[in-house]
Design a protein that fits this description.
The chain is α+β, with helices and mostly antiparallel strands. Helices cover about 40% and strands about 15% of the residues. The chain is globular. Belongs to the asparagine synthetase family.
Length: about 625
């Protein structure tokens, strides 16, 4: 696990400035405190910071050069099945000189080129420079677990694991109007675009090739729709799920350093713990974030599960000044305004885990694969939404935040928008009424994914929403996990995102997902003999926090809330019609329904005030 970065001057006569490359590399020190490396040759330069997980010796050093001297590799990630390729490589004349997956990745590339990608089970973002053909190839894993950003600027191509390395190189920090609109309407920017001008992402499952002179091509090497369509029928889904899930966890325990579990106490992380126990793993450490507010707290369940399996357990709470300080830190590590609102908590729990482990297993992805969010239920009977819209002013609906949100969601008329805005907290009508912003974002990438989802699951809004979220919302969650854990120099692994599970679950009939009161039926069925009823039947909490109370009642946020009402944010023309003082006054009166309106603005205010000062 690492931080990677590089520079390619598109004019071959221009030489790399080593100082710029080193600054980029060292801005990512948190991603790799164990080792650092540099490769410079004429107009190409690579930087690398290493967090040693597999082969912690110096033989795992990067940038990694092929033995024939033709290729140079910088790589961030883990190939969990790398040892499976030893016999094949040896039979083709390759010596295996290390115990690292980096060497296997390089030699597979030499043997098969990029055709080897479909055989890899792992998470990865890597760059390979071909000295002979003078071309740079960037590759990102199937689901985008590992980040990879790039910029064409001043006849130079830059890439890095995080945007901050690009800004360190001198690329201006400028918000893109389209990105700003997506942040307000959709909570995050989806697809290859970002919040910034001149900064883009390599899309998950894509290959980008850049040649001297600037010509570049992009190719999709993994297509989930096609994979689902080509999946053979699964005869016994529960047995298949148990076996595949257990094997996925076994693969993700491959490590030369200690592995722990991020244990919320919910179904997903508890299922990981139950699988580890079933497979007789010993001495596992678990880490939990708790809340003093009972309705947000699952720490008691997490503690019960750890004790049940005789595993270690550590928990903490994050409040007042500690919460404020972690908010500032997580904003820096995130490189954008935080939007899930759990980033400070994940950063804090990762810091708590750091003295004990270097790797954490997470339950991320289960909800998007198996229908775990309550918001999907609104799509079960779309016709009912019309009825709710017509009676939405009744007190029974407007006085409870969940129902109040449903009445606002029910105002959406188009089925495509019901999917596209399903993960939002405020909707176009709300934004027009409260912010005075009437034009919705282009959302070209979201519309493209919706079209793909609709063709795969025609007439099935719930399945369309799952597929849509797997390409959008889940990407933002994975980015959050990566930034918060790597901000503490810890690697995060997601067993639910094994490609066999992603494809297989996508091919199953609805009944395996949407049966029962709380859905995720196949997971509950597979775990019913491993988990107690307290976990299987507990009301889903998720990592949510009462931010409205935090910013209005915590002493640490008092000055910041006052600063927010006078923020430069509201000088931006896009926000000129927002009456921020009125919004804050309503929140201070205890109107919880104001929280989803205020938090994206408050977090953008924090970002504008603190982030650009770091460069």
């Amino acid at each position: 696990m690492c931080g990677i970065n590089g520079i390619l001057h598109l004019q071959s006569q221009k030489k790399i400035d080593e100082r710029v490359l080193v600054k980029m590399r060292d801005s990512l020190e948190h991603r790799g405190p164990d080792d650092e490396g540099l490769f410079i040759e004429n107009n190409i330069g690579f930087g690398h910071r290493r967090l040693a997980i597999l082969d912690v010796s110096l033989t795992g050093h990067q940038p990694f050069l092929s033995e024939d001297g033709r290729y140079v590799l910088v790589y961030n990630g883990e190939i969990y099945n790398f040892k499976e390729f030893y016999p094949e490589l040896k039979s083709n004349g390759f010596d295996i000189r290390t115990t690292s997956d980096t060497e296997v990745l390089m030699k597979l590339f030499q043997l098969h080129g990029l055709k080897m990608l479909n055989r890899l089970n792992g998470m990865f973002a890597f760059a390979i420079w071909d000295k002979l053909e003078k071309k740079l190839t960037l590759v990102r894993d199937r689901m985008g677990v590992k980040p990879l950003y790039y910029s064409f600027y001043n006849e130079t191509f830059y890439f890095a694991s995080e945007q901050k390395a690009l800004f360190t190189a001198g690329i201006p920090i400028k918000m893109a109007q389209d990105g700003l609109e997506e942040y307000i309407f959709n909570r995050f920017v989806a697809g290859e675009n970002t919040l910034y001008q001149n900064v883009k992402k390599v899309l998950p499952g894509h290959i980008m090739t850049i040649y001297e002179g600037g010509r570049n091509t992009t190719y999709k090497w993994w297509n989930l729709k096609k994979e689902i369509q080509n999946q053979p029928e699964i005869k016994n889904p529960v047995e298949w799920f148990q076996e595949t899930f257990d094997d996925s966890i076994k693969m993700r325990m491959v490590s030369d350093v200690p592995v722990g579990v991020m244990l919320s106490g919910g179904l997903d992380s508890s299922s990981i713990l139950a699988s580890l126990h079933h497979q007789k793993y010993k001495d596992i450490q678990t880490f939990n974030i708790g809340f003093k507010e009972k309705e947000h707290n699952e720490a008691h369940l997490a503690k019960m599960m750890a004790e049940k399996f005789d595993y270690g357990f550590q928990t903490m709470q994050l409040e007042d000044k500690n919460l404020y300080d972690q908010l500032i830190s997580s904003t820096y590590f995130q490189d954008e305004p935080i939007m899930h609102l759990s980033e400070p908590h994940l950063l804090a729990v990762s810091q708590m885990a750091k003295p004990s482990v270097k790797v954490l297993l997470s339950g991320e992805g289960a909800d998007e694969l198996m229908g775990g969010y309550v918001r999907y239920k609104a799509l079960q009977y779309p016709s009912l939404l019309n009825s709710i819209a017509s009676i939405g002013n009744l007190d029974v609906f407007t006085k409870q935040p969940r129902y109040e949100k449903l009445t606002r969601y029910a105002q959406i008329n188009k089925k495509s928008d019901l999917v596209i805005y399903n993960g939002s907290n405020i909707f176009p009508n709300d934004i027009a009424e409260t912010f005075g912003i009437n034009s919705s974002p282009n959302n070209e990438y979201r519309k493209k994914i919706y079209k793909e989802a609709k063709s795969l699951y025609p007439g099935n809004l719930r399945r369309q929403a799952l597929y849509f979220d797997q390409h959008t919302y889940l990407c933002s969650l994975l980015d959050r996990n990566d930034r918060c854990t790597m901000g503490s120099s810890i690697e995060c692994r997601e067993p639910f995102l094994d490609p066999r599970l992603i494809i297989g679950l996508g091919s199953l009939e609805d009944k395996w997902l949407f049966t029962g009161k709380k859905w995720k039926f196949i997971l509950k069925k597979a775990m019913e003999e491993r988990l107690p009823d307290e976990i299987l039947k507990f009301r889903k909490v998720g990592l949510s926090a009462p931010w409205g109370d935090y910013i209005t009642k915590s002493p640490a946020f008092k000055d910041e809330l006052e600063s927010f009402t006078k923020s430069d944010l509201f000088q931006i023309p896009y926000f000129e019609h927002i009456n921020v003082k009125k919004l804050v006054q309503n929140l201070q009166k205890g109107e919880a329904t104001m929280t989803p309106y205020i938090m994206p603005l408050f977090m953008m205010h924090i970002w504008m005030k603190t982030y650009p000062t770091k460069f």
